[in-house]
Design a protein that fits this description.
InterPro entries: Glyco_trans_2_hopen-assoc_HpnB, Nucleotide-diphossugar_trans. One of its GO terms (molecular function) is transferase activity. This is Hopene-associated glycosyltransferase HpnB. Pfam families: Glyco_tranf_2_3 (PF13641). Strand 9 and strand 10 form a beta hairpin. The protein has 14 helices and 10 strands. By secondary structure, the chain is α/β, with parallel strands linked by helices. It has 2 domains: 222 residues, Alpha-Beta Complex (Spore Coat Polysaccharide Biosynthesis Protein SpsA, Chain A), CATH 3.90.550; 100 residues, no CATH class.
Length: 373
C-alpha cells in the first residue's frame, strides 16, 4: 500500500515537476534574452563591401522583389547573388531588375541533394567576399539590420551568426501556432547552450545567416550536408564541430514574408521536417507523445481529483509562465498562453502526420519536390 501510495503521488506531481523544472533550468530555454534588433541610424553609412548576399530562390516571384528592395537600404557596397532554382515563374526577371544583383540560372537537381543546398552550392562559386549572408528569398530585413548583425559578429568574435525571423501572424491559426513554433524550437535547441562553447547543442535559423566564407570552405560548404532537410542546424553543428563559434538569436527586424494563414499551410511547414527532428525514430515519437500527454493533459486530468488539483494549478501556472516571454516579445496578448495545450495538441498531430508521410515513402515534400526515405 505505501508503495502504491507513493506511485500515485508521483503521478500527481509529475506535470508540476516538468513545468517548474523547465522554469528553473539555468540556461532558460523559454527566455527571449538572445535577441538583436535593427540600428536604422547606421544603415546608409555602413560599408558592406565585405559581404555578398546569397539567395536561393524557387518560384518566389511574390516575395523576391520585397526581399531585394530591402537589401538596397542596408548600406554601401553590398553584392547580391540570386540562384534561380528552376523557377517557372518571374523570379529571375524580377531579381535581374535590381542593382548589384547577379542572377545565376540553377542546374537540375542531382541525386542525393536537397534543393536549397544545391542552389547554395552553385551560388557560392560566384562569391569572392570575406563574408556571405545566406538569406531566404522570402525574408525582409529592416533598414540597419545587416549593419547591426555585422557589428555584433565582430564584437562577439563569432564566425557564424543567425537570426530567427518574425513569422507573419495574420489569422487565428497564425497566432495560435507560429509563436509556439519558436517556443518549441527554443526548447529543443536552447539558444544559450547553442551559443556557448559546448558542441553538444548547435542550432541556427537558416533564413538569415552571416558566416565567414573561409569557414564555409573549410567545412566543405554545402556539399558536406547535401541531403540535410534541417540544413540550418546541420550547418551550425558542422561549423561548431570544426572549432568555430556560432550564435543564434531572435529578431523582429528579420521578417518572414511567407503567408501562412491556414491550418493546412502551417501543417505542411511543420510536417515536412518534424519526424526528421526525431531522427525518424518511432520510439522517440512515442516518447514525445507520452511526454506531451503528461505535460499538457496531466493538469486537466488532475483538476477533478480532490487532493491533486493544487498540483494541477501549479503545473498550469508554470506552463503559462514559460510561454509568456515569447508572447511579450511578439507583442501578443498573454491570454494566448491559455491556449498552449491546444497548440501542443496540433503540433503533436502534425508530428504524427510527418511520421505517417515518412512511413508511406515521403521523407519530405517542399516546393514541388518530393524527397524519399
Amino acid at each position: 500500500m505505501p508503495a502504491a501510495f507513493a506511485h500515485g503521488w508521483a503521478v500527481v506531481i509529475l506535470p508540476a515537476v516538468i513545468w517548474v523544472g523547465l522554469l528553473l533550468l539555468p540556461w532558460r530555454p523559454w527566455s527571449t534574452r538572445e535577441r538583436l534588433e535593427t540600428d536604422p541610424q547606421a544603415a546608409l553609412a555602413t560599408d558592406l563591401s565585405e559581404i555578398t548576399v546569397l539567395i536561393p530562390a524557387r518560384n518566389e516571384a511574390e516575395t523576391i522583389g520585397t526581399t531585394l528592395a530591402a537589401l538596397q537600404t542596408q548600406g554601401n557596397g553590398l553584392q547580391v547573388v540570386v540562384v534561380d532554382d528552376q523557377s517557372n515563374d518571374a523570379t529571375a526577371s524580377i531579381a535581374a531588375a535590381y542593382p548589384n544583383t547577379r542572377v545565376v540560372s540553377g542546374q537540375p537537381l542531382p541525386e542525393g541533394w536537397a534543393g536549397k543546398l544545391w542552389a547554395l552550392e552553385q551560388g557560392k562559386s560566384h562569391v569572392d567576399t570575406p563574408m556571405i549572408l545566406l538569406l531566404d528569398a522570402d525574408i525582409q530585413l529592416h533598414p540597419g539590420l545587416l549593419s547591426a548583425l555585422l557589428a555584433f559578429k565582430r564584437r562577439e568574435e563569432r564566425h557564424f551568426v543567425s537570426l530567427m525571423a518574425d513569422l507573419r501572424r495574420t489569422s487565428f491559426w497564425d497566432r495560435l501556432l507560429l509563436p509556439t513554433f519558436v517556443y518549441y524550437f527554443k526548447l529543443l535547441y536552447p539558444f544559450a547552450l547553442s551559443n556557448s562553447h559546448h558542441r553538444y547543442v548547435a542550432a541556427a535559423a537558416g533564413g538569415c545567416v552571416l558566416v565567414d566564407t573561409e569557414v564555409l570552405q573549410r567545412i566543405g560548404a554545402f556539399a558536406s550536408l547535401r541531403d540535410a532537410l534541417i540544413d540550418d542546424c546541420t550547418l551550425a553543428r558542422q561549423v561548431k564541430n570544426a572549432g568555430y563559434r556560432t550564435w543564434l538569436g531572435l529578431s523582429r527586424s528579420v521578417v518572414s514574408l511567407r503567408p501562412y494563414g491556414s491550418l493546412a499551410s502551417i501543417h505542411d511547414m511543420v510536417a515536412r521536417s518534424a519526424f526528421t527532428q526525431l531522427g525518424y525514430s518511432t520510439w522517440l515519437l512515442l516518447a514525445v507523445t507520452m511526454i506531451f500527454g503528461v505535460a499538457y493533459g496531466g493538469p486537466f486530468a488532475l483538476l477533478s481529483l480532490p487532493l491533486a488539483w493544487p498540483w494541477a494549478l501549479i503545473a498550469w501556472a508554470a506552463m503559462t509562465l514559460s510561454y509568456l516571454p515569447i508572447l511579450r516579445y511578439y507583442h501578443m496578448s498573454p491570454l494566448w498562453a491559455l491556449l498552449l495545450p491546444l497548440s501542443a495538441a496540433f503540433y503533436l498531430g502534425m508530428t504524427w502526420s510527418s511520421a505517417i508521410r515518412y512511413w508511406r515513402g515521403v521523407r519530405s515534400r517542399w516546393k514541388g519536390r518530393v524527397y524519399s526515405p
